[in-house]
Amino acid sequence: MELKHITSDITGEEMYCGTHPSGLGIYLIPKKGYSETYAIFGTRYGSVDSKFIVPGETEVTEVPDGIAHYLEHKMFDQPDGSNVFDKFAKYGGNANAFTSFNMTAYLFSATSNVEENLAALMDYVQSPYYTDETVQKEQGIIGQEIKMYDDSGNWKLFFNLLNCLYKNHPVKKEIAGTVESISRITPEYLYKCYNTFYNLSNMSVVVVGGFNVNSVLDVIEKGVKKNEPFTEKIKKIYEDEPDEIAKPYAEQSLSVASPLFMIGFKDTDTGYGGEKLLKKYIEVSILLKMLFGRSSRLYNELYESGLINNTFQTDYTVQPSYAYSAIEGESRDSKAVYEAVKNEIESVKREGLSEDDFNRIKKVMWGQYIRSHNDVEDYAGTFMQFLFMGADYFNYHDAYAKVTFDDVKRRFENHFVTERSALSVINPV
Amino acid sequence: MDSLKVNDNINLYYVPMTKLKTTSIGVYIHRPLTEEEVSKNALLPYVMKRGCALCPESGSVFRYLENLYGAGLGSGVFKRGGDHIINFMAETICDEYATNGETLAADCMRLLMSMLFEPSSFDGVTVAQEKKNALDRITAEINDKRQYAQLRCSEEMCEGDSFALSCLGTKEGVEAITADILKEHYDKIITSSLIDIYVCGSADIDALASLVKEYTKDMTFTAAEIPRSELISGRGDVKRVTDNMDVVQGKLSMGFCTGTAADSADYVKLMVMNSVYGGGAHSKLFNNVREKLSLCYYASSSLVRNKGIMFVNAGIEFQNFDKAYNEILAQLEAVKNGDISELEFESSKSALINQIEAYKDNQTTMQFYLLGERIAGTNYGIDEIKDMINKVTLDDVKEAAAKIKLDTVYFLTGKGE
Questions:
Q1: pTM of this structure
Q2: Contact flag A256-B136 (C-beta cutoff 8 Å)
């Protein structure tokens, strides 16, 4: 098949992309002089997708929570009993996989034998094999993984915040599920999910690094197994989420050294992807740095008063069906930090945002984008994440150039609403 | 790599990595790891970062960096054997991506030099704030239970050796520091320590060298060397320590003496041995303790090169302690006996080579690699060490494994256990 060749004068990068007749999206980003190649084969399927309608069916399918992650673990069992890791190990590839709220991805990095490693990746992700026995065996390992998260202050801090912000959206549920929910997982459920979400028309492969485009494309084309692409979309069902938050505060005690806090702002301007979403992402990211970044008035006041330390950071998470920004750190008085954040928002509402700050921080966003090209893993991961939201990270500049000071002022009014904020705290036992 | 000697103490190294879109500058000040100065060293970079002649207060430091398209600036301390290293890192996008023709790498170097040689932040208020943060960092070591268990194991294993000290210092040590004491320490060490500066990326290295010279031309330095490291050789019997804490999952950390020196020609054999044993998803620990017996979510081994230590870490159910412990030792015996398949052996070498080759694409890991080679005194290039790994035989791995002895067993378990 022929791929489209796209270049960027601004970054000096190039990309080859296209859709295979099987429905698989292919994105190849070769980088001159790189030793490493990173390939990621992912599906638009994550922990939030436990309720859906399979294309062609009319009834809603509901499966136990944690199944996307469970399925990811079970992909490593092969019909012939072989170990997937052995195949990569033989060719010096470093293989891994992960499941997030909205995507499951299988990946490897390698500095040699890229074709062999890629063939192994294409093969095992298209070879589901689940039996009662192998499914049973995994409960021990995943049970340990769930327990590991139970002891993690940062993990609990995060999920407690999501449970404050969201009443219904499944983003509030643990990615790995619970010991109870995973005990209900059967091979039948796994096959049902696999046959739905691992249809190649719901998947893409992204390769970034020092590889040969023609031979990599050849391996992908040969590696595609028989697949009937869906002609309609998989209907994912999320319950209606109101604008209001579930509760403003949560706290828990765990064996952590210092109290941890996380403040969240629920974004209610959702329901879309594409360039509009990428532009919103840039706007909110700029605002978080203007208001709470290292050069901000608030950061320096809180730091100097000893209420925060340099673990203080901000982040904006965005998906078409939900989005929130988070401000987190360590503090002996989390409630005072939360009050200061709310007060700062009120003061900025009165005094207005500074255009100088905006111009300076907008440059920071450009630096961040340029920097993101360095690491093949980060770049491929970010590229795929935006791809699955219908946005083009390769041409980030198109959205970036459109962001104006007025846009950011409007976004500020819309996003930083204190009634839609919440505080999560983890206290030491 | 180009190497420029600024004076007897300061070396500047340039590694061109022009395929990347950034330039990184790392400053490494070598100090001996001792109880007397560990806490002062640990506090120092955080205070120095707060203000200098070029940017007198924190807000102006951050605005300066933001104007350089969000250049990064980090500081901290770490240890490599008996070497306690004070570190500053700056990173910026390359000048060609600056839309207004700025000279970003030079501006980053200028800030680093001003922080190193013209700090202006040794006042009581700033030092008190950073002392509090330094104490928080020490208390926070408990947060990551996986790392904490290894830290405790290391502390018990190295009792009586300076390596038992945390690179962050001690609470008592930090509390005793005043602004005057810290300033005095700074004055003492800034001209009497070896300072290595690595620049990776695209830069006019002569222009950067001139900048460093300009800042140091009127200073008098006294010659210094890299602090020495002694191997931990063990006390013969196995030390067993258990801590109880409010946790859901137990953490097992086992410390072994490797008997192989950092600069020994045998070290590469030990690297391959560690890779076979517990160095990733291809290893014996991963495939047996985790996959075959489903005993844990993680099980791996790692080396502390300059102290001759290998750690094994695993997260397990409290009641599975014996099973996991026995299996970890059984797998070590298997390596000692050469019970290693062709696939295991080749995968272990490929994994190592793959990892080392990838340093060429990452400026931070490249700096740490070169610094590690310098501290060990071997100065192997990346291609050189890859060749050496390729030549390691199965017998070499057996030989390296034969010298390994269990020394300390640490278990972090639940309150009621």
A1: 0.89
A2: no
